[in-house]
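Collaborator request, handled under Task 6.
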Amino acid sequence: MTPDPIQRLVVELAKLPGIGEKTAQRLAFHILKAPREYARDLSRAIAEVVDKVKLCSVCCALTEHDPCPLCSDSRRDGKVLCVVEGVADQLAIERTREFKGRYHVLHGVLSPLEGVGPDQLRVKELLARLGSSLVEEVIVATNPDVEGEVTALYLTKLIKPLGVRVTRIAQGVPMGGDLEYADQVTLARALTGRREM
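Structure tokens returned to the collaborator:
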């Protein structure tokens, strides 16, 4: 027996992070009540993002064009590299308009309990990039939680022997908080007051 299309939609929506079954039902009924063109536009947008978005070959951010616009921008300072957990963190820092350097996106943090080690992150790409560039400072901008701190310490141990200055964003972002949800002023202060590791 084929599952009901509504139930199938609810099941697929519930697979999204932070979406439970009740929210998935609300979203499914919203889609059903909306004009047909809305559902078609939504499905086209999802298909397009899956087909066109890829990792930037330089910074590992998600992008339609390779290299991404930030890596292609000659006005950005190539001597300073900000390492972030994910693209949402990169966007949060960009919203502050304080950082003028370049980025590297790890796509996660070290979390042995969840089976996430260095091989699951974009650490090799970071080290290769540092070995073949003129980077003088790496700002580690992982979240101020246990996994973020462990990742920051791990990266520091790998990067310092390369003769590159390693700094950590300053406190100001609350412990256990996510960069993605921090306000612009807090993030700007954290970047300005970063410290040596």
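The cover message to the collaborator said: "The radius of gyration is 20 Å. The longest strand covers residues 77-84. Please let us know whether this matches your experimental observations."
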